[in-house]
Design goal:
Blueprint: H1 11-34, H2 42-58, H3 68-79, H4 91-101, H5 107-114, H6 121-135
Amino acid sequence: MSRVGGDAQRAAYRSVAGDLKLAYAQFEELETFARFGASLDANTRTNIEHGRRIRACLKQPEAAPLSVSEQIAVLLALTASMFDPVPLERVAEAEQAVRRAAAAIPAQVSARFESSATLSAEDRRTVLDIVRPSIAPFCPKVVGKA
């Protein structure tokens, strides 16, 4: 491991990945605990399901690099739990849709991804507003009571 660590990352990555690293570490711990057959409360099951979606999105085929905008869009969507309602077997498809939607991120926002500036709350909202419709088709429809 490098001594530089996160300091070598772009500021946009650091601002997005911090919460995600914590959530994934908690997931790994909970997943190990769950293997022992312990009964899990609803919150723990939710955290485990969220972690499974993080893992699914972090898997990347060899020789298939993602652009910075695609990476930031996927990481933000994960951090905002947008993938959580997506069935696990459809997460890869939903991720592809998010990656395609990332092309619509305004140039002034994506330029900040490359700079040393951290993402503002407005930048985050912009990206999430762009990717939200791309994930919606993968979420099961909730049937209301008549």
